[in-house]
């Protein structure tokens, strides 16, 4: 069922021990829990997000062949993996307290990426062992298109009552006026 999102992703890594050291630190810092496959068919460590069911996890297992990956080559395969952050402050702390002290290659410093979405904020970095490209991203809560375009006239299914005539030509948002102004000024939406 698609509403659950991605079930899991597994990566085959070049140096398993060094990779596990890196990913234990990375996912531990971000609050993920980990568990092992117990060598059922292959050796693998899994890093799981918040809930047991439904859940998403990322698996790391030893590669049999391969070489260091470079996302900048735009070769076939995964370009990068994005993880959700709790907010901008977490991204800034992650950059300052995790990436920089460990000399992890940061390809793009924390900043806003308005071309993706208003308020989109992220940092991009590379796995220093395998070259896998990662992103830690945050998107603020902003109104949905339905909230933005909802007006009393549309909501009343075309009735031409006093409320519709009074609001002709203006949007009447289902969010408080003060919040609309804050959103409008922050993202320059012109409401």
How would you characterize this protein structure?
With 191 residues, the protein is an alpha/beta fold. The chain has three domains: 1-66, 2,3-Dihydroxybiphenyl 1,2-Dioxygenase, domain 1 (Roll); 67-140, 2,3-Dihydroxybiphenyl 1,2-Dioxygenase, domain 1 (Roll), CATH 3.10.180.10; 145-187, no CATH class. It is built from six helices and eight strands, in the order βαββββαβββαααα. The chain has helices spanning 16-29, 88-99, 145-149, 152-155, 162-166, 177-187, and strands spanning 8-13, 33-36, 45-48, 57-62, 81-84, 106-112, 121-126, 133-138. The strands form two sheets. Strands 1-4-3-2 form a four-stranded mixed β-sheet, with helices on one face. Strands 5-8-7-6 form a four-stranded mixed β-sheet, with helices on one face. It is globular and about 60 Å long. The chain starts with 7 loop residues before the first strand and ends with a helix. Residues 151-161 and 163-173 have low confidence and may be disordered.
